Amino acid sequence: MAVLVIAEHDNATLKVATRHAVTAGREMAQEVHLLVAGQGCAAVAEQGARLQGVSKVLLADAAVHAHASAENLAAQVLALAGQYTHLVAAASATGKGFMPRVAALLDAAQVSDVLAVETPDTFVRPIYAGNALATVQSPDPVKVVTVRTTGFDPAPDGGNASVEAIEAVQGDARVRFVGQEVTLSSRPELAAARVVVSGGRGMGNGGNFALLETLADQLGGAVGASRAAVDAGFMPNDYQVGQTGKIVAPELYIAVGISGAIQHLAGMKDSKVIVAINKDPEAPIFQVADYGLVADLFEAVPQISGNLG
Amino acid sequence: MKVLVAVKRVIDYNAKPRVRPDGSGIDLTNLKMSMNPFDEIAVEEAVRLKEAGIASEVVVVSIGPAAAQEVLRTALALGGDRAILLQDDAEVQPLAVAKALTALCKREQPDLLILGKQAIDDDACQTGQMTAALLDWPQATFASRVEIAAGRAQVTREIDGGLETLDLALPAIVTTDLRLNTPRYASLPNIMKAKKKPLETLTAAELGVDLAPRLKTLKVVEPPKRGGGVIVADVATLVDKLRNEAKVI
To answer: Å from A165 to nearest chain B CA?
Structure first.
């Protein structure tokens, strides 16, 4: 029996989150299949077929999957579920949306945001904003698992799987896609970046984030924000790092003007090296920072940029 | 239109949970408990729908111990009309809660069920989606804007790359993101009035659902601690250490 990993993509490019999910899937069973459901997404299936460890790609190419609707994606996965021991998706907004539907319809208890696979039925997951790690065992015949991408290395290229077209499910007519507004950025994707430079309330306003953008560009990194900075309107919501935003674990995380509330730490404390720049020496962020600098960020950040130049 | 809102009693978001030394779970003794923050937003949204003349009744429900009555009273003080507590002392997991909410929705026949997108204790982010699946209703998760008109809900959702808008036929399920609204505070007169509002208590047997947990928790441990860091004197030292000691730039 095999694992089915559900690919995440934008109909043109396979998202890196899928690579992490494939690695997690390989720790659950020998054989990994990849489902690519989308519209006009043959290129994604080809990218998936090249992933090391994937032995078969199932391609459901149809208009019902154009926008990754939770209802249609869940129905598509459910139609295949009987052939698999595990159903696996990245714990992204998409994965979090459709996977619990699949689990409920299989009468299975989903295991969310898995950080490690101990055995094929036992998983480690964070609870209480990452303040505790629970080891849980699933008795269900088909395990439904979403994985935290920062817990698993991305699967490299090097495979040569076959691509098999499958029939798409009937669409759910009760849900209509109206539109989307995507934040455009030339920087690496926040969740996958090697370096993340994040700003908090101390940035003062959105315009000052230009300082962090300069630094991020010098380091080839992405820009993030605390909830306070997002709520204050400094940055769009999808920049938020934390329990309720994105979970990141880059090589280097630079927290600028961020106090370090537990909800923020939940999103970044697995970073390899943490740097905190804050003028308040009592800020909780200094308790997790490898290197702390007590300074005015408006002086310190341009100086760092100058030192790197 | 009737709106049902599901609320959970959880550790207060400012409290620091302690892992029990024997690894059996989290010690909640003497910790402050509150309504899950996402659920406060769900209650607020339902009350706003009532104030806008769209909802006629707001029913708040919770599943948990007798003490969960407190969060239901809070929800009533915020503007809920009546409350239902499915009283159970055991650990409840999302699948069981979804089954209970499904049974409650079949009994109450709401047009809209609003939940928080996740509880800040188990961080599962499953219950709304599971309930939608069991009821065979459409869902809009992670909502940052909800508009109801002509038997449909238009919902803007927070997705990884930005925002997405869906249009759903009612009855439907919406789960709230933090930016949907800013919950109000309950005023003292409203807290007093809430004490007189109806609160019905049910058991799992009365509702015909099995709340037994499915996932078995083998152990709970503290996450690995980070080693103590250093405070550097100036930017030059910081850059030098990142370059030559940590070797990350």
So the answer is: 26
